[in-house]
Amino acid sequence: MRDSKKTTISASSPLGKRSGLSNTGILLLITVSLFVILYVSSTILFKDSNFAKYSVFFNLINNKAYLLMLALGLTVVLITGSIDISVGSVTGLVSMVIATMLSSQSNISAIWAIPISLLIGVAFGIVQGYLVSYMEIQPFIVTLSGLFFARGMISVINPKSVPISDKLFMSWSSAKVYIPFLYNERKNGTMDVAYLTPAAITAIAVLIIMIIVMKKTKFGRSLYSVGGNPQSALLMGVNVKRIKFMAHVLCGLLAGIGGLLYTLFAPSGNPQNGYGYEIDAISSSVIGGVMLSGGVGLPIGTLFGVLINSLIERVVPLLGIVDASWPRIISSAFLFVFIVLQSLFASAGHKGSFKPVLPQWMRFNLKKKN
Asked: N or C: which end of the chain has fewer CB within 10 A?
């Protein structure tokens, strides 16, 4: 029971006791520092590309609002020690359903896109959550099946690209909320004012709600308890199965919202929409400080993980690299580094200090034989 309490405290607060920063605080500090270093370096190296403009900074979240939703969903399930790799395909399915529903041949109002997106996401969350928590099937297998099902349904609904022509939905997609006190003057004398899209505003609002839920509510604290030590959580009166089930339902809901925000960002349906986004979401969560072993992570760290992902995607073309696969390759490299760091922190937590990571047979024996 004591171990579970310690995990919960360190996960809920980035600051540890007097001994110093907890694993959560260290990982968050590394993530924030990495983002600051990358962003400052980019503003210096790409001065001619106006990288230091306010509008460029805010576009990091404008362009990745949907990814923040998917990454927050992964944050929730990863904290409980589970995983969901279907979120990218759910995003693509929601996008295709909305596009087909709002095509020129349909008279359905764009308002219906909102509840339908949420229902699709929640449906996946309920089914997968039930199989994982109550039937105790491995989450990777369950959500892999969900991934294939959603990907197959996209092609069944429409195997071709479907543009959205609905005027109301397109007005949502093109809307901008300007921030008048954040602007840069262009060379021709006009003002380049920073703005947020409706998708970005929605994502930020959901992020704030998630921060409050994870820190201030019994449900949020239970997520950390279940991920830190399920047996101890059970002894403390936490319904472990129900918490895991609710975590997957919440992840599905966020995936549905992510699908809606992605469709606002790219207003069309395509069989390739959402392909590989689960990898981006997982990497953003882990780079943001969420431990794959469960029990540790903060939504604010996930935000910085998404910003790093978005920053990499913007910087790589400026380096003259036109291959679209390189941003994901670089993100994967960062993911690998953070997984290694997590392994080291976990080892230090169990043994009290860092130990050599090499197996015994690979270590040099420096002791002299008598």
From this structure: C
Distance separating alpha carbons of residues 305 and 291, to the nearest angstrom: 13
How many C-beta neighbours within 10 Å does residue 52 have? Answer: 15
Structure tokens at 217: 């509510």
Asked if residues 120 and 259 have their Cβ atoms less than 8 Å apart, the reply is yes
32: in domain: yes
| pTM of this prediction exceeds 0.85 | yes
* Residues 70 and 56 sit within 8 Å (Cβ to Cβ): no
Residue 370 lies inside a defined structural domain of this protein: no
- Here the CATH number for the domain that contains residue 247 is 1.10.3470
Question: How many whole angstroms separate alpha carbon 39 and alpha carbon 51?
Answer: 9
Collapsing DSSP to helix, strand or coil, 300 comes out as helix
Give tens-digit pLDDT for 277-315: 999 999 999 999 898 888 888 999 999 999 999 999 888
Residue 368 is assigned to a structural domain of this protein = no
- Confidence band, pLDDT 50/70/90 cuts, at residue 338: confident
* Total count of domains within the chain: 1
Report the amino acid identity of residue 149.
F
Beta-bridged to residue 185, according to DSSP, are: 191
Interatomic CA distance for residues 160 and 158, integer angstroms = 6
Q: Which two tokens stand for residue 367?
A: 């002791």
Question: Could you give the CA distance from residue 287 to residue 303 in angstroms, rounded to a whole number?
Answer: 10
